Amino acid sequence: MNDSSASASSDVAHTLLNDTFLRALLRQPTDYTPIWLMRQAGRYLPEYNATRARAGSFLGLAKNPDYATEVTLQPLERFPLDAAILFSDILTVPDAMGLGLNFVQGEGPRFERTVRTEDDVKRLAVPDIDATLRYVTDAVSQIRRALTDAQGRQKVPLIGFSGSPWTLACYMVEGGGSDDHRTVKSMAYARPDLMHRILEVNAQAVIAYLNAQIEAGAQAVMIFDTWGGALADGAYQRFSLDYIAKVVAGLKREHDGVRVPVITFTKGGGLWLEEIAATGVDAVGLDWTVNLGRAREKVGARVALQGNIDPSVLFAPPAAIRTEARAVLDSFGNHPGHVFNLGHGISQFTPPEHVAELVDEVHRHSRAIRAR
To answer: Which residues are listed for substrate binding in this entry (predicted)?
Structure first.
């Protein structure tokens, strides 16, 4: 088999020059293990920093489809990655709800208004996606065009994404990032009625948002449950997983006759691997604390797995990076259904040349594994 559009099944877009990523998500055989990196368009790249400087701010970058397209494509111009991911931010949804998102230098995201009182919760509503988040769907469409050549052949697939209902709620209640999530977890335990109302609105908003991205051209979508692992067992299921399952059930799983795979990633979610796999997703993202081989034995017949090298490995010398990449690939073994990724987002301090070493070794060694 080859990875050209000529070999594509009915489940995968026929115009793709490289459909390896989508095939892996659907647990179909591939010639090698595809790789993309969470936060692959970001501050570790000097060209990204130059574009961000032209945009004037992070939001100026994210809310301008031209800039968003430019930075989405930058890592693909440097590295032979197997997927592009929309450049945006998970907090665009609560911003569209009128909470007033700002990024403070050295502090990260901040909202002008929080959602903490009964009145705050009562006012919360699913935003009109076309009216408030058109810049995102316009960027998706523009990126798809930029990935496509004059013959209508697309270089690699495009991933859309959203934060999970719980992760969005963490920022909305806390007003920004938090070390202990004290305010949002206190609400969950003391006023679960309010928390469930927030999560229900968020779930419906995420469904509408991801479906709009799919309609605009996203060929796979990912749900980032960054703070699910901050919850206790039991609370995780009630306040995070149940709403992820609701989102997955509401998504368009096919567009223009082609399957649209869904990935979910709970940082710190290894404890709940089998439950996450049961939500109906096509793939489960794993952080670096999970043994990939054992994870495959547990759920590999049901879902693909994405991950899961420690991002800090990219600060090691090239030989060590290649050794660790081989260890991850060998752990999964010669089986369908693996997308190589980091166990979390790439650090802004990562040397770009080390990323090149990782991508090369993943492609090289996985081809060697297939040839055995």
So the answer is: 39-43, 89, 171, 226, 344
